[in-house]
Amino acid sequence: MRLSVPRSHAFRPWLIAGLALAVAAVQAQTAVAPLPAASTTPAASAAAKPVVAAGTVPDEATKAAVLNRLRELYGAQRVVDRIQVDAVVAPPNWRQHVVTLLGPGLQQVSAGKLEINGNAVRISGEVGNEAQRQQVVSDLSTALSNPTYTITNALRSGGGKQNVLDAALANRIIEFQSGSATLTPQGQAVLNEMAAAMRQIGNARVQVIGHTDAVGRRESNVALSLARAGAVRGYLEQQGIAGGNLTVLGLGPDQPVADNATPDGRARNRRIEFRVL
């Protein structure tokens, strides 16, 4: 099962993947994506990214338990259900253990991912310092209290580089000509500032992620989002940023930050995101 979460001003969304997951499974699966900062509440603004729950679980009761827990943490309006139920085999009490892992401590992680593959758990993403890195995993182990589960700590400490990029973008939209991957002058102006921010963070690897609204065919939107991410990479390379440090990803309409039913919401969903890897 996969979950995606909105980002706050300080933290980026993150993911949890699950049993028989990767987000594909041999048994039951769970995935959760980037989580918001601890200060985020269920009443957070519509600009916050949604929590998308996706993947495969063994029964409707597990699906309901996971969704209910997410709604408690982030508010019902932010939780998007893409969970599938199938005849997968889960370890004993798997539902209880998965729900236990969905705790507020995960909100210390930015651009994170929690994978639960059977009784193997892996957490990745970024935290502010080494103490937090150890504390997050310690909290997971304490909450689980089950020696048959193993937890792999793939967290990175030090969120300064991501913060530099987030501050430079400052929630602005990098604009393109309608329906194309051609940058507007306004979009180029924002990217000039992003290039300066990237020079600040040195040789860090950065993923450029394109997003669209939900108008039109999903396949076309995914292709457009990838083309726009590629155009951003090309422009940054022209500004002297090493292309080898930039990767691109197109997610189309799959991670909206606003309601696609309104013009303003669709405009906010058509965006470029920068993620330090």
Automatic annotation (TrEMBL):
- What Gene3D superfamilies does the database record attribute to this sequence? 3.40.1520.20, OmpA-like domain (3.30.1330.60)
Residues in OmpA-like domain copies: 163-277
Could you list this entry's UniProt keywords, alphabetically sorted. Answer: Cell outer membrane, Membrane, Signal
Q: What is its main location?
A: membrane
- Cleaved signal peptide residues: 1-28
| Protein location | Cell outer membrane
Q: Extract the Pfam families matched here.
A: OmpA (PF00691)
| PROSITE patterns to which the protein is assigned, alphabetical | OMPA_2
**Name of this protein:** OmpA family protein
State the organism named in the record: Lysobacter cavernae
